[in-house]
Amino acid sequence: MSLLLALCIGLTIGAGLHLTMSRDLLRVVIGLSLIGSGANLTVLSAGGIRFLAPPIVPDDATVLHATADPLPQALVLTAIVIGFALVCLSIVLMLAVRAASNTDDIDALRASEPEDGSDGKPAILKD
Asked: Judging by beta carbons within 10 Å of its beta carbon (0-12, 13-18, 19+), is residue 85 exposed, middle or buried?
């Protein structure tokens, strides 16, 4: 089962990297979301895979060998919330950039940057 989980993690991160290197801004945002999901799966799998093991210790138990570790679960839950906020912010920024420039092609957006001067600084930022 851990081999299948490792394969899913690799495919998720690989698909996220592929989409992140795309020219379309929406694909970049979706790629960032997939990379975050792959990182969450990695942290969750590092905590150990225990099926049907509750994170709560029964009253009569003295040894914690059959319980799930709650720390990776808490970290992943926090990362999911932060990742959702990042995706929402990225979508808002993507829509603002697309509305301001009338394009969502990254190469076209890069062409709209100011040219570098002789000292390497953009022409707008020269002293």
From this structure: exposed
DSSP 74-111: HHHHHHHHHHHHHHHHHHHHHHHHHHHHS--BHHHHHH
Residue 25 has a CB neighbour count (10 Å cut-off) of 20
- Taking the C-alpha atoms of residue 112 and residue 96, their distance in angstroms, rounded to an integer, is 15
* Tokens of residue 71, six digits: 């720390």
Q: What's the alpha-carbon Rg for the chain, to the nearest Å?
A: 22
pLDDT digits (tens, 9 = 90+) for 49-62: 766 666 666 677 66
Residue with tokens 């940057």: 113
Q: What is the pLDDT of residues 39-88, one digit of tens each?
A: 999 998 887 776 666 666 667 766 666 666 778 888 999 999 999 999 99
The model carries a pTM of: 0.75
**Which domains does the chain possess?**
2-51+69-106 (1.10.287.3510)
CB atoms within 10 A of CB 12: 19
